[in-house]
Design goal:
The chain has about 900 residues and is of the alpha+beta class. Helices cover about 45% and strands about 15% of the residues. Strands 1, 2, 3, 4, 5, 6, 7, 8 and 11 form a nine-stranded antiparallel β-sheet that branches.
Length: about 900
């Protein structure tokens, strides 16, 4: 047994050796077979990879079908801090992982979409996993940003489309340039799409996908960077050593060194070659080699895709070049560069095979497969993590401010806007939204010309208006463009300037009852007009108000009786107040004729209080009437029994009425106050008409300083009340500070359009203060003539202030000029206003007192009780 043991051991060793040799031989044979049949291995690997990729794509597509979209709309005061923007970035990174466990990594991303298609300067959307909606709906930006649930966008096919993917080039560990928040980092991108034209099918969209990278990918990237850094350091050390040896050899072989050796006392000491110590590679510091990749905090991978389209050849390519230049703003040692290869004039990129199909898939499904180099920190994306701020200058597109179309009753001309591309267009606001308008600026700055252009465009569109101009300069300026046959039957001119030897004057009886007015409303309107123009109030002139009101009540009752009996030509006028107060016979006949029309309190006042009044109590009432009677124009205008002027009828019939009061003296202010108060009464009387049936009407008040000097409370009430009755007021003035406080506060508070031309900084400051001093008074004061800064309301939101050039009538309405028809227009305007020669109206006014006396005598009861005479009258 002992002799057999070594034999068995040797045999076992031989068998083991044979097995090893057999295994090695088999492996060598298999390797040889694989070498000869390598294509089978490659095919197997390709099949496995293809099957895996197909499964991943299907899972990613399924996950992407559950994505949600939010649209962020900032207000005009949105100015986030760096901390708020950073917190938003953290939210986005966290939301990118809110996916099912089985979702592939390419589907775990949040996408920021910056889109310009003509509907807005730049739409800011967030798309991501449905599970991240609650996280993304509440932003750190607070109430300055409105978050809306967005619907999918379906684009129509364009004829020309270009695509591009951007990757980070330069030093891979260096950050992008730190762009300040003021001006807005998005400004270059918005400027790049500012000349986009929706009618040409222009479209530009940038998509930034943010993805939290896996730890293994980050570690692999760091290992690669550290290896690259160490290799670079070794190469640098080898290069330094090589140069050092060359320098040492050069020195020893030089003639100077050999001479030094010959002349030296100890030549043996310098014999032989000098020993050169090569430099040792320095230690690579991870923080220096890894740069922004050194820390894990807030590090993400990004994918930047861009698509531009248009129906016009060349515009999409030009737009892509503009966006590429805009992205250069973010570049420093690391920059955004277009991915692809350039071969002479050709570029092979996302628009070409083999990358186009992958680009389309990522674009359509929202998948994020960023290049290896696209690592960034959230701080580098500060400019793209928020919507445009208040520091961003947004262009005005056709969707923001409609283009004016001549003859369109829904549009109201505002001015000429010059776009970023140099194109000019007439812009307008919607008439329904333009409720009140205020224009401020120095004399000759163009505010009246702009109002005239607006009024003329409104008149041609079929709208009714009242243009009140104390100086009359606007009428001859406008006639050339209003002299159309279709307009002549709607235009009326009330001119109280008295030009010429025997001017034609219209007529108005503020007390007239022939137009179915309400007596107490007429009495109240006239009394308030007098009180406003003469500064009467219950504290300073209570007796004057009482006397005047009582007299007007009697005369209104007389006129009611005259109209009801079919004799409107026998109506009293405002000048009969003097006869009623000073002529006992006239007063007795009047009170007797209308005794049954007066209320008990009014009759009692005439019977009890009036006899006790001294004669000097009437002077404060009669003096203004005497001034009106002394002016032949106002005497003729207000002294007719049946006046033609009827502003309520003009509103309802869409008339174009021009009123020129004639100046700003005491008499003119009184007439203006009467007209203004009558307008307020007429507009308020529209309460008898259903709101849907009220015809829009636009009063234009030029020189508000003059008009409000006569009726401040009335003008203020117009800016407060007229909106309810579809009557929109437009006012122009040189200085807001010169307006009475009630008027100034009301018009600024309710103005839907606020405009200013150039002027002194102190005059402009109240307007720019309403805009938050953006633009500043200095900028507005430096504007050229006929330029305006205007803020408007469009679709319920404010647009502007934007810079417009005022429309010049000769340029804007050149095709509407009819200078040869101006005489016919003048004739028609006088005819529609019932204007007659001054002498004829003067004679009729002089005879009116007698006609009224005859009427009263014929309608006074025989048993009328006379009103007691005062002591002075008896004497």
């Amino acid at each position: 047994m002992d002799s057999a043991a070594p034999y068995l051991t040797d045999r076992a060793d031989d068998m083991a050796t044979g097995q090893v040799l057999g295994l090695v031989t088999g492996l060598v044979g298999a390797a040889d077979w694989l070498y000869e049949h390598w294509y089978l291995l490659a095919l197997a690997i390709a099949v496995c990879w293809g099957a895996g990729e197909l499964v991943l794509r299907r899972l990613a597509a399924k996950a992407s079908a559950e994505r949600m979209a939010l649209e962020l709309v900032p207000n005009r005061h949105f100015a986030p801090s760096l901390e708020e923007i950073f917190r938003r970035g953290v939210q986005l990174a966290r939301a990118s992982t809110a996916m099912p466990w089985w979702a592939p990594r390419r589907a775990k991303a949040v996408q920021i979409r910056l889109r310009a298609d003509g509907s807005s300067p730049l739409r800011y959307r967030i798309e991501g996993p449905a599970g991240g909606q609650r996280l993304l709906s509440i932003t750190p930006f607070g109430p300055d940003v409105t978050v809306n649930r967005a619907r999918p966008i379906a684009d129509k096919p364009r004829d020309h489309v270009v695509r591009a993917e951007f990757i980070l080039r330069g030093k891979p560990t260096a950050p992008l340039r730190e762009v300040p928040l003021n001006p807005d980092p998005l400004q270059p991108l918005i400027d790049a799409v500012s000349d986009l034209r929706a009618e040409l099918g222009d479209l530009a969209e940038i998509r930034l996908d943010i993805q939290r990278a896996p730890k293994w990918a980050l570690r692999a990237r760091r290992l690669q960077l550290m290896s690259d850094a160490r290799r670079a350091e070794r190469r640098e050390a080898q290069r330094a050593a090589r140069w050092l040896r060359q320098d040492a050899s050069g020195i020893e072989d030089s003639l100077t060194w050999q001479l030094q050796q010959l002349l030296s006392d100890k030549p043996a000491a310098g014999a032989g070659r000098r020993l050169v110590m090569p430099p040792v590679p320095r230690r690579v510091e991870p923080a220096e080699a890894l740069g922004k990749l050194a820390d894990d905090d807030h590090l993400v991978r990004v994918q930047l895709l861009v698509m531009c389209a248009s129906n016009t050849e060349g515009r999409a390519q030009a737009r892509l070049a503009q966006l590429q230049a805009a992205l250069d703003v973010f570049g420093g040692r690391s920059r955004w560069a277009m991915r692809g290869w350039r071969l002479g004039p050709w570029r092979i990129g996302a628009d070409h095979w083999p990358t186009r199909r992958g680009f389309e898939r990522r674009w359509t499904l929202g998948h994020c497969q960023p290049p290896r180099a696209n690592w960034v920190r959230l701080e580098e994306l500060t400019g793209l993590l928020k919507p445009p701020t208040m520091h961003c200058r947004l262009p005005v597109l056709a969707g923001d401010l409609p283009t004016f179309q001549f003859g369109d009753p829904e549009l109201l001309l505002q001015g000429i806007y010059r776009g970023p591309d140099g194109r000019e267009r007439l812009v307008a606001t919607y008439a329904e939204e333009t409720l009140f308008e205020v224009g401020v600026g120095k004399a000759g700055g163009g505010k009246t010309e702009r109002a005239l252009a607006q009024a003329i465009g409104w008149a041609h569109a079929g709208g009714g208006l009242l243009f009140v101009d104390p100086h009359r300069d606007s009428w001859p300026r406008a006639t050339t463009f209003l002299a159309h046959e279709a307009l002549m039957r709607r235009i009326a001119l009330i001119d109280l300037n008295g030009l010429g030897a025997n001017p034609r004057v219209s007529s108005w009886n503020p007390l007239g009852m022939h137009q179915d007015q309400t007596a107490h409303e007429v009495v109240e309107a006239i009394t308030d007009a007098y009180a406003s123009a003469l500064a009467w109030d219950d504290a300073t002139a209570p007796r004057a108000i009482t006397i005047f009101t009582a007299a007007l009540a009697v005369l209104a009752a007389v006129n009611e009786a005259a109209c009801q009996t079919g004799r409107p030509e026998d109506q009293a006028t405002i000048f009969h107040v003097r006869a009623l107060l000073t002529d006992a016979a006239f007063r007795t006949a009047a009170l007797a004729a209308v005794a049954d029309r007066l209320d008990e309190e009014t009759r009692s006042w005439w019977q009890v209080v009036f006899p006790t009044l001294p004669p000097d109590a009437f002077a404060v009432v009669l003096n203004p009437i005497a001034r009106l009677a002394a002016n032949p124009i106002t005497r003729a205008f207000l002294g007719q029994p049946v006046g033609v002027y009827n502003i309520r009828a003009a509103m309802d019939s869409r008339m174009v009425v021009w009123v020129c009061p004639g100046g700003n003296g005491p008499t003119d202010r009184l007439v203006t106050a009467l007209l203004a108060r009558d307008l307020l009464r007429a507009v308020r009387s529209r309460r008898d008409t259903p709101e849907a049936k009220r015809v829009p009407f636009r009063p234009y008040f030029d020189e508000l300083i003059t008009l409000t000097g006569a009726a401040p409370e009335t003008i203020a009430a117009m800016f407060e009340d007229f909106r309810k009755y579809r009557c929109q007021v437009h006012g122009m003035t040189q200085l807001l500070a010169r307006l009475p406080s009630p008027v100034r506060l009301s018009l600024v508070q309710n103005a839907s359009t606020l405009a200013t031309t150039a002027g002194s900084k102190s005059a402009i400051a109240p307007i720019t203060a309403e805009w938050g001093d953006n633009p500043s008074p200095d900028r507005v004061a430096a504007m050229e003539r006929f330029e305006h800064y205007v803020s408007m309301n469009v679709h319920g939101r404010r647009v502007g202030p934007i810079r417009l050039r005022g429309p010049h009538l000769d340029a804007v309405f050149a095709t509407q000029a009819r200078p040869h028809q101006v005489p016919a227009l003048e004739q028609a305007a006088h005819t529609n206003a019932g204007a007659l020669p001054l002498d004829q109206l003067t004679d009729r006014a002089a005879e009116q007192t007698g006609r009224v006396a005859v009427f009263l005598a014929q309608h006074s009861p025989a048993t009328a009780t006379p009103v007691p005479l005062t002591k002075e009258e008896y004497e």
